[in-house]
Write the structure tokens for this entry.
Amino acid sequence: MNKAKLPVSKLSLEDVQDLFDKWRKNKRWHDSIPEELWQAAVDLVKDFPIGQVSKILRLDQSKLKARILAIQRVKDSNTVVPSFVELDFSNLPSSAECIVEAEERNGSKMKISIKGQPVDVIGFAKAFWSRDL
């Protein structure tokens, strides 16, 4: 396969199959599958089962799955999680109601319901995140 980029528009399963067939006809025995073809195969898994894609494209299903998982890990690692969020409860009217929820990565949750009375939310949060598990 030449170094030309694949079209940006979404390719059909048949289009990708044709691209793989053309590449296989022209490749040398030691050539690796080009990244553009791998990406096209990964994109198909959004619309078709991985088993169907790997069978039609004649790919090792475990290698295709590994690429999908690697892309997902990269996406997950790029997710920005704020390290600090400041909440100002000093000007709440006495009739205001507020619910504060916090969740740790391990699944532990804390929920504080505030109505009419001042509550030390920061103190609760510090206690929640500093406890030993």
User: Anything to note?
Assistant: The first strand starts at residue 97 and ends at 103.
